[in-house]
Q: What sequence folds into this?
């Protein structure tokens, strides 16, 4: 009897190559969709974080009848002394109990771990606050995962001003800042008392006569991949990102020219102090201005390594592409495009009055009481 033998037929090399090619095509088709879906999820998370910040601000206003000062805490800075907040503890700390951060706020107020109650100078390392709350970070920022844990991505609107926004009075000098036209301001102190006592709170919503729906509270700012927990200068190389800011530049129109397409010109001197430490309310670290449109370069005319610029244009920036997510004082969160109308015809004059902005629709959204009717919608 003859027995039939079953033969198993193997794939040929050509068939394997065809299958591999088909898989490669499918991956090529699916990968952009997957990446788009991931960015959509990251953008949604970023939007939600700003929404929560806006709601926390509203809750604080309802409870305290004003916004927290942008910079406050115990005062005042004395050279070589680290026994208080130096008058520049950020409003993020005050908002903690209203954004599910009550336990961290209590730990800060308790002190310990080498610091007095309320914490050390706001720019100092301290184990209690060396890690920023997760909801102060935008997951779309590709640099965030590699930087110091005290860094953050959301910044306060300082208005349509340029000028010195330096927080932190010394024990002998007056407060060092120009009139701030946005929804945030620095605290003032009575220095005749020991220790100096805070005299003023923050802005009240009733002061926003332009309308809460037409006034910005927060936006985004991507962090420098060069900046760890330092404030340092560097020289732009080919491909340097827009995240730091150029120095020795005096006006908005000049600032526009120091970079394009998200990178600075090779050889520009850059300062790195933005988004470094969430507790420090120095403007270069924690604010943005509505002088140049979103994703423009940022500039300061201060050539020193310390973050105390005497002229600032701090642009809101993001990695979403084409604009930034911004929170308005009425609680709305919107995507503001890079193409929003912005006029920077002047040379960076400091607007200290209630006259309408000179910086277009974007500038109008930054001011709270200049009788402008501009709406982003």
A:
């Amino acid at each position: 009897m003859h027995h039939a033998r079953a033969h198993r037929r193997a794939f040929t090399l050509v068939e394997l190559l065809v299958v591999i090619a088909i898989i490669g095509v499918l991956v090529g088709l699916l990968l952009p969709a997957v990446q788009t879906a991931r960015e959509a999820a990251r953008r949604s998370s970023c939007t939600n974080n700003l929404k929560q910040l806006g709601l926390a601000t509203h809750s604080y206003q309802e409870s305290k009848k004003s916004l927290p000062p942008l910079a406050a805490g115990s005062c005042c800075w004395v050279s070589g002394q680290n026994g208080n907040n130096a008058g520049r503890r950020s409003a993020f700390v005050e908002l903690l109990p209203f954004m599910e951060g009550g336990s961290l706020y209590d730990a800060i107020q308790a002190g310990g771990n080498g610091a007095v109650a309320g914490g050390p100078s706001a720019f100092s390392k301290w184990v209690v606050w060396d890690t920023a709350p997760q909801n102060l970070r935008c997951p779309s920022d590709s640099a965030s995962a590699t930087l110091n844990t005290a860094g953050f991505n959301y910044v306060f609107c300082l208005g349509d001003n340029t000028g010195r926004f330096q927080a932190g009075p010394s024990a002998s000098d007056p407060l060092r800042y120009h009139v701030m036209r946005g929804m945030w301001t620095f605290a003032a102190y009575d220095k005749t008392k020991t220790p100096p006592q805070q005299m003023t709170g923050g802005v009240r919503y009733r002061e926003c006569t332009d309308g809460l729906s037409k006034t910005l509270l927060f936006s985004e700012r991507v962090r420098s991949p060069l900046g760890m927990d330092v404030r340092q200068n560097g020289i732009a190389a080919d491909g340097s990102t827009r995240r730091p800011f150029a120095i020795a530049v005096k006006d908005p129109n000049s600032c526009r020219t120091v970079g394009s397409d998200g990178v600075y010109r090779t050889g520009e001197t850059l300062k790195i102090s933005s988004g470094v430490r969430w507790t420090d309310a120095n403007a270069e670290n924690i604010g943005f201005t509505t002088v140049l449109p979103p994703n423009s370069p940022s500039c300061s005319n201060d050539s020193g390594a310390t973050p105390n610029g005497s002229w600032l244009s701090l642009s809101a920036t993001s990695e979403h592409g084409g604009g930034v997510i911004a929170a308005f004082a009425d609680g709305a969160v919107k995507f503001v495009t890079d193409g929003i109308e912005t006029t920077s015809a002047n040379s960076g004059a400091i607007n200290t009055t209630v006259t309408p902005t000179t910086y277009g629709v974007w500038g109008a959204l930054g001011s709270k009481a200049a009788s402008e009717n501009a709406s982003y919608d």
In short: The chain is about 20% helix and 15% strand. Helices lie at 13-64, 91-95, 102-110, 252-256, 283-286, 360-366. The CA atoms of residues 179 and 374 lie 21 Å apart.
